[in-house]
Amino acid sequence: MSKTSVNARLAMIQALANFMDNGSQSATVIFYEGIQPANTSIAVDSNDALVTLVFPEPCIKEVTPTYVELHPTDTGSVIKTGTATWARIYNGAGEVAADLTVGTDISLANTNLALGGTLSTTSIKLRP
Fold first, then answer.
1. Which residues in the chain show pLDDT less than 50?
2. What is the pLDDT of residue 1?
3. Residue 112 belongs to what H/E stretch?
4. b or e along 18-47 (b: 16 or more beta carbons within 10 Å of the residue's beta carbon)?
5. Under a CB-based contact definition with an 8 Å cutoff, are residues 57 and 24 in contact?
6. Are 10 and 128 in contact (CB under 8 A)?
7. What is residue 2's predicted lDDT score, i.e. its pLDDT?
8. What are the residues facing 61 on neighbouring strands?
9. Neighbour-count burial of 70, counting CB atoms closer than 10 A to its CB (0-12 exposed, 13-18 middle, 19+ buried)
10. How many other C-beta atoms can be found within 10 angstroms of the C-beta atom of residue 105?
11. How many whole angstroms separate alpha carbon 4 and alpha carbon 128?
């Protein structure tokens, strides 16, 4: 299925966003330093975690013809100094929803995070 329509890809992204709301907790995105795993089934070294951000529930803010936008996250405290190279999104049940590469899939104003600093996302738009 290498070629799908924009509408089909948008439906898949909306399904992903809906999956993020599963579970009794809120969805989170954790930013990590180091090498991103080859796929989402590979466990993460928790020592590489830099900051955890929590989405409100529901996490979907808006669905448009070209993207699905998620609500902004809360502000998280950086627990370790390092360079954010990738992030993993977990749903409210703690299941992996997606991995994102910093600089390609998600942009940060500053990827160098300092212990005690803060980070939040103001906009995450998932595009087909």
1. none
2. 52
3. strand 112-113
4. ebbbeeeebbbbbbbbeebbeeeeeebeee
5. no
6. yes
7. 62
8. none
9. buried
10. 14
11. 10
